[in-house]
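Can you give me the bound-state structure? Components:
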Amino acid sequence: MGRPVAVAAIFLLPLLGHVWLEATAAQNGYRIRQLRSEIAALTKQNAHLDSQAAALRSPDRIERLATGRLGMRAPNGRELAAVAVSPQALWPSAPVVAAERSLWQRLAAVFQQQPASAQERGR
Amino acid sequence: MSRSRSGPHGGARAGIATFPRGRIRFVLVAWLVCLLALLGRVGYLQTARADDLRRIAQRQQVDVVPVPASRGRIYDRNGRVLATNVLADSAYAIPNAVLRPHDFANKVGPVLGVPPGEILRRLERGGYFVWLARHLPADVAGRLRALRLDGQLGFLAEQRRAYPNGVLAAHVLGFAGVDNQGLSGVELQYDRALRGSPGEAVLLRDAMGREIPEGRRLLRPATDGADLVLTIDEVVQHIAERELASAAKQARARGGSVIVMDVRTGGVLALANYPRYNPNRYETADPQTWRNRAIADAYEPGSTFKIVVVAAALDAGRIGEDTTLSCPGYLVVPGNHRIREAHGVAHGRVLPADIVRLSCNVGAALTGARLGPANLHRYARQMGFGSPTGIDLPGESPGILRPVREWSGSDVYTISFGQGIATTPLQLVTAVATMANGGRRVRPHVVSLIRDADGRVRRVIEPTPGPQVLKPSVARAMMEMMVRTVTDGTGTAAAIEGYAVAGKTGTAQKPNPAGGYLAGRFVSSFVGIVPADRPRLAILAMLDEPQGPYYGGVVAAPIFQRVASQTLWYLRVPPAPSTFGDRMDRGRQTSARD
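Here's the bound-state model for the whole set.
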């Protein structure tokens, strides 16, 4: 009794294992297909949203909202003024181009640096 | 014998025993024959028909499908999207699977807005595939799906071109067709770069024709189309279109154009035409509105051409800045034609600057006569008239500049004030940009950069320096003359507070195809440079057949003024005192002495 069952099991188990693997592969395949279709749907939605966002940013729409809803208007020439702004004011971190210093200014800078260096060393 | 075999199952065995032995043999033989026949058939199919059947099986199970490439996007010079792609459903029918064609057509037709008869006509072709509608709006696709005609009706997701700003820059962008092929504008000019190349994939299908999961193998990947970055600025384009449409509606004009060009590079910042159309629905628009008038339509330029004649005469040394000519209000030219001033006024003794400032027809005609037909023709050619400017847009007209041998005796006079020659608005603005550029021509262009789908720069379109057409001193003198046109000439409506504006007005009667000119039909234009002392922008404004006031200085100069002032603010070009003041004052004193 035991022996035929064992023989049958030796032949059947790999067969069942193979069937199980095939079924799992097919199941995963369908899952992948479903995910791909979800990706396609999301890509489609993303493209639509991108296009809608660009349409919402269109100058014509913004101008209509500004003038119609917010009561704004374009400034006329007298309401605009050009103000000269130094690069430092716009970009505080911009490198400063040092002006040519005189001999006395350079000498004074040497004396000013010495106490500062001493303080640095004392810390 | 039969008794000895009986037992617990003796009845059945008795049945077999009683079955005639001959019949058993017959059945066995019949089975054997069938088996042999089947074996023979298998052998035949596996050997003689093997190749044919393998081919049929491959055709049914293996499918080579194209992998579509994405069309490249189009951006303005600041990276704002002007043309992109969206996915849209396209519906198809499987005629062989439609059992009741009339019912099918009556259900599908109303949803698609197509007469059922038309649907029936397509179904009659038979087969397994026929398009019903391409690029459907999402709501229509949803309503079609709700009909639940699975197996008879299918959908394919296809890329559709979308222009998020609607009408904005429609004439520059053009449009792409249902198969994503460029049909007009930049879409057509750069179609090869935008289109990319489709790839190929192999997919496996089951007996029902369905794609087997994970049965797809890529043979050749698709190469997406390249993106284009234009020289067009979305905001400047909007300003130009808004002001043009407003002025054209107010003047009840047939059409119009505005071009804003960067004089240093030849890059076109805005190119607007009126009437406009929406490229998202180009098929519903009047095809006449698709035409890019600014480059495709040639008009007689009228007085704006006088600056070309005066510049040419100065450059050729046929006149000097202090040469005076006499304008008695009319001039009789060969052929006994009489050239008159616009209001019949006699300007008296005029300097070249006065010819430009006062738009003196007689002065321009006399200047042209001094220059001579050959020189006038040569300079006009050198400044870009009579041949396309080479802008990277399709459908550019070369304008009309007849060869000198075809000129009549009066042509040199009439062409000198802009009659008998036809130019496109783009040619005119390019010629004026030449004067602002120290006498050197630039090639106008609308695309500045081509980059691949991964953002790598493939090609940078650098400004192409053209030939030196005018001496820098002549170009500078012309700028001064044009500044005077705006400060105290025919173009005062173009003045912008804080900026030096150089410009020239033009009012040209439209020629009658039957000969002569059409009464009451004019093309009004203004072309100018701003700021004149450190030129940034060359701008042309033109209205075709304005009703009511029609002088260029009255209807076109204000368009220039509004477009230029807003563009200067937008581009943060600060106002500055004009450097032309001193020389202009000296010029006025000379004029007064004469």
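A couple of observations. The mean pLDDT of chain B is 89. DSSP finds 20 helices and 21 strands in chain B.
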